[in-house]
Amino acid sequence: MKEIKGGITAAKGFKAASCAAGIKYQGRTDMAMVYSEVPCVSAGTFTSNVVKAACVQWDMNIVKANKPMQAVVINSGIANACTGQEGFDACEATAKGVEKALGVSFDSVAVASTGVIGMQLPVDKLVAGVVAMAPALDDSIEAGTAASKAIMTTDTVNKEIAVDFQVGGVTATLGGMSKGSGMIHPNMCTMLAFLGTDVAIEKSLLQKAVSEVVADSFNMITVDGDTSTNDTLLCMANGLAGNTTISSEGADYESFKEALTFVCTNLAKRMAADGEGASKLFEAKVVNAKSVADAKTLARAIVGSNLSKAAIFGCDANFGRFLCAMGYSGADFDQNDVELFFKSVNGELKVFDKGTPIVFDEDKALEIMKADAVTVYVDMHEGDAEATAWGCDLTYDYVKINADYRS
């Protein structure tokens, strides 16, 4: 497997387009379309929030009904959540606009929205956007990058990646893009992510791989503890790589899953690092825990604590905050077994040793924590399970951004 240049258009048969539809933002693109030249098998994971946006419910129906998927239309600015029947009508109108423009069945068109909750989408602008994008669909790297920028809301950078990998003696490709910066918390975290691959794989195995990989990537990031109404990850596989269809678990399946893991983990970490107002990536790695469940619980508690996040922002090696978060996480452990370290590109420093604080060099700790990415590394000494979670620091700008989000 190797990382290559590009994103959602990297795999054979995938095209993208974007436009400025004027849905909420002015002076920037705010709609994108992803299209496969042939119908795809699809898999998806969606928000665990009981309040699900209309577009989430629309996409869930397509994925669960085992229908082919051939296009996705995404808008930013308005979430189409808590919008009643009018919200569903907007989904259908968008999909039927694609049907008319591209000649594909409307029930093979997924839709996704991100932005302000409780506002109705301007259907006329959505349909006009579809009409504008259809003839502009292109398989270039530039078209994919433009699409990844059009779906941004409070993101400060676009997020895309692609890889080549070997399966069945041929080279296949997986590319993707995501957005997410705030209202991010596991199960699923707030995000939109779209993956396109030319590998041939049975739908049940595609869904299995996606569900398992999401659990260890996107579901292991948090920015602010809020789980969105709109979380959606869709993976489309069109089979144009020409490999023998992956129909059982084995070497080919593992090769695909390795590529999927790399792509999803990369996108997840980019989202955590780009948390609203963030100045650095905050990683927690828990090793030698009793179980994977405990390791995940502990790691997520560390990066999810507001006090921990504030300490990371202030470059304060206040290890008590991280131990405190572990203690209320729900995982059972003996504090007298725990070792805690701070790590970054600037070095590493042990600050807590099996129940006992260590007198450490404060200047060295400050140097470590000033890096753009800081890891709290915890050795539980109770088993052999491990997990990693990602978040960001909590800065003054987070409050500023969210205090006037609607405007």
Explain what you see:
This protein is α+β, with helices and mostly antiparallel strands. It has two domains: 2-271, L-amino peptidase D-ALA esterase/amidase (4-Layer Sandwich); 281-403, Roll (Ubiquitin-like (UB roll)). Helices cover 33% and strands 28% of the residues. It contains eleven helices and 15 strands. The strands form two sheets. Strands 1, 2, 3, 4, 5, 6, 7, 8 and 9 form a nine-stranded mixed β-sheet that branches. The chain has a six-stranded mixed β-sheet with strand order 13-12-11-14-10-15. Helix 5 crosses helix 6 and helix 7 crosses helix 9. The longest helix has 23 residues, at 251-273. The termini are far apart. The mean pLDDT is 91.
Mean pLDDT over the full residue set: 91
The CATH homologous superfamily of the largest domain is termed: L-amino peptidase D-ALA esterase/amidase
Question: Mind telling me which CATH architecture of the largest domain this is?
Answer: 4-Layer Sandwich
N-C termini distance: 44 Å
Structural class: alpha+beta
Output the CATH class name of the largest domain: Alpha Beta
The major sheet is characterized as:
9 strands, mixed
In DSSP terms (H or I, runs of 4 or more residues), the helix count works out at: 11
SSE string: EEEHEHEHHEEEHEHEHHHEEEHEEH
Q: Which fold does the CATH topology of the largest domain refer to?
A: L-amino peptidase D-ALA esterase/amidase
pLDDT under 50 segments (min length 5)? none
Q: What percent strand?
A: 25-35%
Helix content: 25-40%
Overall morphology: globular
In total, the number of domains comes to 2
Quantity of strands, as a count: 15
Radius of gyration: 22 Å
